[in-house]
Amino acid sequence: MAWSFRKRIKVIPGVHLNFSKSGISTSVGVRGASMTFGNSGTYLNTSIPPLGIYNRQKISKSSSNSFQEESNIIDFSNNIFSADIQEITSQNMQGVKEAIILAQQQRKELKKDLLKINNSYASSKLKLNLSYIFLYGLIKKPLSQNIKEDIKAQKNALTQIKEQIENCYVKLDIDFDPEIKEKYLKLVETFKKLINSQKIWDVTSAHFQDRAITRSSASTLVQKREVKFLLKSLPEIKSDYEALYFQNANGADLYFYPSFIVMYSSKSDFAIIGFDEISFNQSYVRFTETGTIPKDSKIIDKTWAKVNKNGSPDKRFKGNYQIPVVKYGEIKLKTKTGLNEEYEFSNYEYTEEFGRAFTEYQQMIKTLKLL
Q1: Strand ordering across the sheet containing 269-274
Q2: Is residue 18 assigned to a domain?
């Protein structure tokens, strides 16, 4: 009996984003069924293309220890990290998340198929070799011919499955109006500058310290770890626009796409947040730098290792020495659903440029949402 394999038909989900002066719409789904998120509500779309049948139903209307002189952190007793990732996904981004999960499930099933076919392929080759060793393959030629046909079919099936696995992802199609595209490309341009900062840190905690007791000029003890920012996309999402990648030292990494942010810890542990829902704040910090000063940072002041309240050196301490105060860029990201991240950058100018471009683009997104 010849080997046979029933090819599975895989339906790959897709996401289509449309940015125009009339607003933003996000369609999520596959041929025949999708969800559309627009300014007038959320719709479930179903259609049967060959018959020309279409129905639309409305269903809903953010390690090293050092010191920082100034800080906007309200609760100094807590570490800086986001809430449980399962609680952060925006309600109107659930469709995008489900599309990614579907692509992951399909890839997993295809890999199981690939393993089965590989096993069958190895078994068939073994049978063919044994048939020649024991000569019955030469005597009973139809038997060896059937095995050869099985091997050929299995090789073809392996090729098909591998192609399906390569194509098993969420296709993110984005249509920008020229004015909106200009704002987004400006954001990407400033991000490329930002990632060239000599040092980028994820601030993981900030604790208040009593200056009267420590005799320090810094009121906040900061812990932070060096991280990387890159242009890097998730393997589950294919797009002409790479995501702005923020590495997270104590939680899920952040991937900024044009309309949403993916907080990604693992294939089964991720959240999606609308771009407009992010509370974004860019500023600067005066940092009492006890370590090596990055080449692209500016010294803006000096203080003493032990100081009086008026900033003068405390003469009770022998060997008291001066410490430089540098200006670092700062970015804080928060949402009502629990995102809470804070980053510092050695290059303040690049941080300021990126902050301005981010704010302008986000403001345009918010305006479009209201149209």
Answers
A1: 229-231, 244-246, 253-256, 260-266, 269-274
A2: no
What does the pLDDT look like over 115-137, one tens digit per residue? 999 999 898 888 877 776 666 55
Which carries the bigger pLDDT value, residue 326 or residue 140?
A: 326
Residue 118: inside a domain, yes or no?
Answer: no
Number of structural domains, the chain?
1
Nearest to 277 by CA among 302, 251, 256: 256
> Is residue 312 in a domain?
yes
Over pLDDT 90: what percentage of the chain?
37
Tokens of 115: 């393993």
More confident residue, 178 or 78: 178
| Strand residue runs (E) in the chain | 14-20, 23-30, 33-38, 41-48, 53-60, 64-68, 170-176, 200-208, 220-226, 229-231, 237-239, 244-246, 253-256, 260-266, 269-274, 279-288, 298-304, 322-334, 340-345
Q: Give the pairing of strands 237-239 and 170-176.
A: parallel
Contact 309, 211 (CB under 8 A): yes
The two three-digit tokens of residue 185, written as one number? 């490309």
Q: Is residue 164 part of a domain?
A: no
pLDDT digits (tens, 9 = 90+) for 239-277: 999 999 999 998 899 999 998 999 998 887 899 998 999
Distance CA 288, CA 230 (A): 28
Residue 327's φ and ψ, nearest 5 degrees, are: -105, 115
232: closest CA among 254, 263, 249, 248?
A: 254
Could you tell me the CA-to-CA distances from 130 to 1, 122, 138, 141 in Å, in that order?
18, 12, 11, 13
In order of 91, 284, 285, 289, 315, the CA distances from 72 in angstroms are 30, 10, 9, 18, 31
pLDDT at 163: 86
Prediction pTM value: 0.76
pLDDT digits (tens, 9 = 90+) for 203-213: 998 666 444 44
Full residue range of the structural domain in which residue 348 is found:
62-91+176-370
